[in-house]
């Protein structure tokens, strides 16, 4: 089971949140925890479904001046936004737009950077997801609960790819081995394309460059590794970053906080244990 985390007292004073659990599966992930705080403006290459437990959180596009209070919201990929968990338990489900579910979500909600969600069926699924976390359910149970949220909103399975099979081959390679060296030329050879053709097709199919996608995959992998024990330096190296500073910069840009702000519960001082973690380091 993934470790539960809490924000350190210093991080809590800065208003940043720790993450309870982060679980990955192909093309998606779920981040969930308690006592979520506010993070810096950021953007990331995934559709973000934000689900509060019982009390509203605040969210807005990076260019918006006014906050929106809601129990649920969805943010489109690569769109700047700001999130404030208001100290509440929050779950975030990230769906890559290259999946069938991601394409369906883009078609349904892509006309706005941030859309508020009001759906009784979704509320029931969100409550079930939070219940799995609160009862320390298995990783498989938490992933299944998150997938049901995605499938409800997208009306399509959460896993299959929706891109050109040559690009799908490269995406699978990156997701399976995010920390392994993979240059653009090597990726192009894997797709049986010239580097220039691969570069163009990758952007056309995913909306971002190959290098940007590689960084996105590596950040998620590094966070998951870092939360499973060991140092952030080791996590950065295992994920293919030059060093922990590179990981920290990338994580701040994509998730609005540094990975070192995530502290395992067992390492937290006693006064922090009463309110376990600030759940959503990433995004909002």
The helix fraction, in percent, is: 40-55%
Main CATH class: Mainly Alpha
Q: What's the arrangement of strands in the largest beta sheet?
A: 2-3-9-4-7-10
Q: What is the residue-mean pLDDT, rounded to a whole number?
A: 84
Tally of separate domains = 1
CATH superfamily: Homeodomain-like
Under the CATH scheme, the architecture is Orthogonal Bundle
Question: Helix/strand/pairing class, anyone?
Answer: alpha+beta
CATH fold-level assignment: Arc Repressor Mutant, subunit A
Q: Calculate the terminal CA-CA distance, rounded to whole Å.
A: 25 Å
* Rg value: 18 Å
Shape annotation:
globular
Number of helices: 10
Please state roughly what percent of the residues sit in beta strands, choosing from under 5%, 5-15%, 15-25%, 25-35%, 35-45% or over 45%: 15-25%
Pfam families: HTH_18
InterPro entries: AraC_XylS_family_regulators, Homeodomain-like_sf, HTH_AraC
Keywords: DNA-binding, Transcription, Transcription regulation
Protein name: AraC family transcriptional regulator
What features would you describe in this structure?
It holds the Pfam family HTH_18. Residues 263-284 are annotated as: Disordered. It comes from Frateuria flava. The protein has 284 residues and is α+β, with helices and mostly antiparallel strands. The model is unreliable at 1-16 and 265-284 (pLDDT under 50). The protein is globular and about 50 Å long. It has a single domain, classed as Orthogonal Bundle (Arc Repressor Mutant, subunit A). Strands 2-3-9-4-7-10 form a six-stranded antiparallel beta sheet, sandwiched between helices. A three-stranded antiparallel beta sheet has the order 6-5-8, with no helix packed on it. Strands 1-11 form a two-stranded antiparallel sheet. The chain has helices spanning 9-13, 100-109, 120-134, 139-154, 165-176, 184-190, 195-206, 210-227, 232-238, 244-255; strands at residues 5-6, 21-25, 28-33, 47-52, 57-61, 68-70, 72-75, 81-84, 90-95, 114-116, 263-264. Helix content is 40%, strand content 16%. β2 (21-25) and β3 form a beta hairpin.
